[in-house]
Amino acid sequence: MGSEAFNLQGKVAIVTGANTGLGQAMALALAKAGASIALVGRSAPDDTQAQIRSIGGNSASINADLSDSGNVSRVVEETRVALGAVDILVNNAGIIKRNDALDFTVEDWDSVMATNLKVPFFLAQAAARSMVAAGRGGKIINVASLLSFQGGIRVASYTASKSGLAGITRLLANEWAGKGINVNAIVPGYFKTNNTEALRADPQRNREILQRIPAGRWGDPAELGGAAVFLASSAADYVHGALIPVDGGWLGR
User: Fold this and answer.
1) What's the pLDDT tens digit per position in 188-234?
2) Could you write out the DSSP letters of every residue in the chain?
3) Given a cut of 70, is residue 2 above it in pLDDT?
């Protein structure tokens, strides 16, 4: 298998939450592989678009509240109008709320479940309908979590949503493999992003985390790019329902 198996030239990818961090890194990796990228979120992805332009890539910005499932059909349609098709979906956008389980609120439960589980399912559904209608198959990549496998603490709705996303990934793979649609998930470990800045700045928590990671360091967001390109490419045509950890060995500890 040569490098052409990883070539995404002529493909169109939707990436949610691509204005910073892991979503931005995956969007850039897909663009470098040749895909045109629809960048979806509430914040304008100006920096991501500038970086994609700097490598000669093509992108479009689609403004959407990803806590509202009523937006999913519009996201897919606007992508088709702007870029011509939908071949790849990366369900990356997510939020987290922290509180003791004894004090967790209904509002913090519902908001996280909507953004992290409900909308990814219905966005995958809308993308898959477009893929089936076009008759060209496609790739759906969900972004799960270490808490798809572990319980964590003080993040009840996040753990529930990411565990649910792992199950939905497998269910959709079972239903859609025969339609030429691959559904898989990436499981990121601890990466250097804005979301982990407080953890990295806390000497005790930083030390505890690094002691658990066999690689002995935090991940760089760019290191998710290989997994994203692989799962989006023809190299992964026989990969269905997989959850691929990119975690420096955390889950193997």
Assistant:
1) 999 999 888 888 999 999 999 999 999 999 999 999 999 999 999 99
2) --GGGG--TT-EEEEES-SSHHHHHHHHHHHHTT-EEEEEESS--HHHHHHHHHTT--EEEEE--TT-GGGHHHHHHHHHHHHS---EEEE---------GGG--HHHHHHHHIIIIIHHHHHHHHHHHHHHHHTS-EEEEEE--GGGTS--SS-HHHHHHHHHHHHHHHHHHHHHGGGTEEEEEEEE-SB-SGGGHHHHHSHHHHHHHHHH-TT-SPBPGGGGHHHHHHHHSGGGTT--S-EEEESTTGGG-
3) no
231: left (phi over 0), alpha (psi -120 to 50) or beta: alpha
In which region does residue 241 sit, left (phi positive, over 0), alpha (psi from -120 to 50) or beta (all else)?
A: left
Phi and psi for 158 in degrees, rounded to 5?
-65, -45
- Taken in order of first residue, the domains within the chain and their CATH numbers are 3-193+221-246 (3.40.50.720)
Active site residues: 158
Q: What is the mean pLDDT of residues 101-128?
A: 98
Q: Which of 150, 139, 156, 41 is nearest to 92 (CA)?
A: 41
Quote the distance between the C-alpha of residue 89 and its chain's center.
8
